[in-house]
Amino acid sequence: MPVDETLLESIRIKIGSETTHSLGPITALMIRRYARAIGESNPLYFDPEFARSRGYADIVAPPNLVTAITCWDEGPAADDLRTDGTPKTLQLEGIPTSGVRVMGGGEDMEFHAPITAGTTVVERSTMIDAELLHGRNGQFIVVRYRHEFVDDDGLPLVTSTRKVLLR
Q1: How far apart are alpha carbons 79 and 148 in whole angstroms?
Q2: Which of 95, 98, 137, 149: CA 20 to 30 A from 156?
Q3: Nearest C-alpha neighbor of 48 from the set 66, 75, 28
């Protein structure tokens, strides 16, 4: 599939559409595993008594935990992964990814409130923009998404704006 105005227009029809899904409760085990994986040693991420002594209900998730997890289920089997570790059937809301190379293009994050173990998180995702650009190696499309992570009462936790590149 060529990266051109036709592809851009097929993507732009999804601008403004929102999807919402529950990520479920963020567990203490998820927090600890993620903190270990990123090399953290802060006791806020591991020790409930320490976290409570600092005014939190339980251990606290590292700030970017919810934005770093790309798959909230068990994920695909190894045979269903590309060499870069992403699913062969990669699905991005509003993007026909067959025949194009999809790459991350950066992310801006705004942190509103700490996420503690036991918090149920809901993600609202909206495609906010798509544009065709010309680079040294040809045309590419930049698609921007806003992801709002809120608790089950609607309290904002994290807002991220991600860029996805199609070449």
Answers
A1: 32
A2: 95
A3: 28
Enter the pTM of the model.
0.85
Tokens 């992403």, residue located: 86
pLDDT at 75: 75
Q: What is the mean pLDDT of each run of 10 residues along the chain (167 residues)?
A: 89 93 94 96 98 98 89 76 67 68 91 97 95 94 96 96 93
124, containing H or E segment? strand 120-135
Q: What is the CATH number of the domain that holds 52?
A: 3.10.129.10
* Gap between the Cα atoms of 87 and 134, Å rounded: 28
Number of domains forming the structure of the chain? 1
Residues 126 and 44: their CA atoms lie apart, in Å, by 32
Q: What is the pLDDT of residue 147?
A: 95
The boundaries of the domain holding residue 113 are: 5-166
Given a contact cutoff of 8 angstroms between Cβ atoms, the answer to whether 122 and 21 are in contact is yes
Distance of alpha carbon 110 from alpha carbon 148, whole angstroms: 10
46, two tokens = 């591991």
Amino acid 81: pLDDT: 76
Closest by CA to 99, choosing from 133, 144, 141, is: 141
Is the CB of residue 95 less than 8 Å from the CB of residue 3? no
Residue type, position 62, single letter: P
